[in-house]
From TrEMBL:
<feature type="domain" description="Aldehyde oxidase/xanthine dehydrogenase a/b hammerhead">
    <location>
        <begin position="15"/>
        <end position="119"/>
    </location>
</feature>
<dbReference type="InterPro" id="IPR037165">
    <property type="entry name" value="AldOxase/xan_DH_Mopterin-bd_sf"/>
</dbReference>
<dbReference type="InterPro" id="IPR000674">
    <property type="entry name" value="Ald_Oxase/Xan_DH_a/b"/>
</dbReference>
<dbReference type="Pfam" id="PF01315">
    <property type="entry name" value="Ald_Xan_dh_C"/>
</dbReference>
<dbReference type="InterPro" id="IPR008274">
    <property type="entry name" value="AldOxase/xan_DH_MoCoBD1"/>
</dbReference>
<dbReference type="InterPro" id="IPR016208">
    <property type="entry name" value="Ald_Oxase/xanthine_DH-like"/>
</dbReference>
<dbReference type="InterPro" id="IPR046867">
    <property type="entry name" value="AldOxase/xan_DH_MoCoBD2"/>
</dbReference>
<protein>
    <submittedName>
        <fullName>Xanthine dehydrogenase family protein molybdopterin-binding subunit</fullName>
    </submittedName>
</protein>
<dbReference type="InterPro" id="IPR036856">
    <property type="entry name" value="Ald_Oxase/Xan_DH_a/b_sf"/>
</dbReference>
<dbReference type="Pfam" id="PF02738">
    <property type="entry name" value="MoCoBD_1"/>
</dbReference>
<dbReference type="Pfam" id="PF20256">
    <property type="entry name" value="MoCoBD_2"/>
</dbReference>
Amino acid sequence: MAEKFHRSDARGKVTGRAVYGVDLYAPHMLLGGVVRARIPRGRIRRVDTSAAEAMDGVTVVTAADLPVPAYGMVVNDQPPLASAFIRFASEPVVVVAAPDRETLAAAMGAVVVEADAEAGVFDVEAALGDGSALVHTDYQGYSTVFETHRDGNINGRSVVTAGDVDAAFAEATHVLEGRYVTPRVHQGYIEPRACLATVAPDGSYEVTTSTQNPFGVRGTLAKILGVPESRVRISASTVGGGFGGKLDVTLEHFAALLARKSGRPVKMVSSRAEELASANPRENSVVLIRSAVDAAGRIIGREVTCLLDSGAYAHDTPFIASVATLQATGPYRIDNVRSTALSVYTNTQPTGAYRGPSGPQMVLAVEAHMDEIARHLGEDPVALRRRHFFQPGDVALNGQVITSPSIAECVDRALEAIEYDRPREPGTAVGFACSWWTTTAGPAGATALLEGDGTVSVITGATEIGSGALATGVVHLVAERMGVSPESVRLAATGDTGTGAFDFGAQGSRTTFNVGNAVLEACDLVRAQVFAEAAELLEVGEGDLELIDGTVQVRGLPSVTLQLSAVAQSALNRRGPIHASARYVAPPTEYNPSCVGPHHFYPTFNSPSFHCHAVEVAVDEETGRIEVLRYVAAQDVGKALVPPAVEGQIQGGVLQGLGLALYEEEVLDRGLVRNQSLDTYKLPTAMETPPLECILVENASEDGPHGAKGVGEPPIILPGAAIANAVTRAIGRTTRELPLTPQRVLEHLRAPAESWAASTNQESQYDRAR
């Protein structure tokens, strides 16, 4: 039985008292909706809103009402509302607010949008061809937030290079290559995007929203509204899941624009169809890998090109492409590497961050490719990997020194748990995958206050999005440092730009790591104030005191104590309230700048962690159905602050990864998303959850609180690769494309037998694509 642990947000959620974005309400509020394009590409000929505006209580906003023409996270290429040109189906054209649902539906239906359809660009590889049409014909005139490589349909290009790659291939005994494909998948959060916007009496904006990143949303919203950031306050409601899909503005700008024009609060909630057709899902991808192997079976060179489909606008995909480049070798030493990742425009919905951005795509490619190399060499894939594992002091492709890799321990424990060497029936096999991952940095701040009743209140701009990073991780850190029970720690204010210090957002497995360090420093400052006050009251030295069970005690004299409440009340009257604030930014990770090309946004893996997942599957050769029999996840967590909470994150991440591996795919038909409901977009449920064992490997970070590392993202990045390798072994056919649906498995089974011979054609598909 798992040990009990405290989660400060549990009571509100299980009793139904937690207020989610869809629950928001304000007197006299209007309901907002978005009129969207119905074609993937075309020139707008006419927009007529007169009939809608004539309806009682209806407010309409078009592009003519906007103070800025375009915005973006990297490139200012996205108009809040289309005015002249449509670049993807479901692109917003007009927003409407009305006093009730019926009037809103009628008003939206009365808006006329006429456009002349044009031929679109829908394939990420075709978009790079010489004859491809440009998604943005005027891209060279766009301003940028961050300078990025732009060329035709490329809106971001990141490159990392180590050693002499061409020489390695010239010397190689074997050259093997592969092309690996993953689909576009939605983040699968249950609560849709939702917000409520109000214009305050002083003309400032107040928006409550289901967001992971209040300060990031504030910055973008202020830009769209044309006002200083100080005039915008963003507060997070209880978040019903985000997984990266709620990091930037979603509906907040539309609600604020409607509120400004109508003078009334405006609430907006996405439908499920809007979520699937117009949100920012994970990029579909194509990854090309070519490896040079010497006569001793050592990989001496590798080239990788990762193509990420950003959709119609760049959004944050250039950032994600940078992360992809650092995964070209996996947790293996390869001295000569050229890793390139491109963010590419197409006439499809814009994509974006999803838990472990670029991780599943790159780990599938690297780990399936490693298995293919092992088969070609005629050796077990475990042996091949062991020969290449990072060792202490090794240098990664970016010049970053690997100080304490734990990959070998993760592999040993995962394969032992899955009984890797046990003989199995035909059609049943074990596959595994390895990876390394980062703990995202970014500034954080926290304030700790000792209340008069002896509880400790915490204020932070960070957001609890359901992961427990604040509600469990930070709460337990404060409880331990202040000598109180977790029940005596209160998250007094979180996720509000009006009360907490800046936070980089709930993203990249960073919250417990960064906010945890900030709040521990704040607690140390509070402890010093407590000890100074108590030392005078007890007439002892400050160094003789300790905090235990909500009291200040004299060491060695447990009968001489003061309640924390008494200390707080005494200090209030004599010196003022006991409180302190602190901030934290992770120290930079050293790397070799000469290895990293220009316009690279993520050159290092901060406090890296290592992982191995192993899975046993059975494949029905008549139906193509894959049954996942057992799953083992061994993860380097640094330090498991609250083990049941860490295991919960691993379990959830694995299930999402299985969704990508076996079920999920946004079906695109010439730019149109065909499966716009959860009936047709298949998410895994508890019924598809296999027996899952979590193995927590503790390999402490030098910088994390008590040695902790980020834990939320790694579990999702390995299942696709582990499943693909297991299925390949079970059916005797190479699998390089996800999801592995029964139909796709049957196609593999009907294909002719394969040859594992190496490619010796230097003018390969890799070179042609490059």
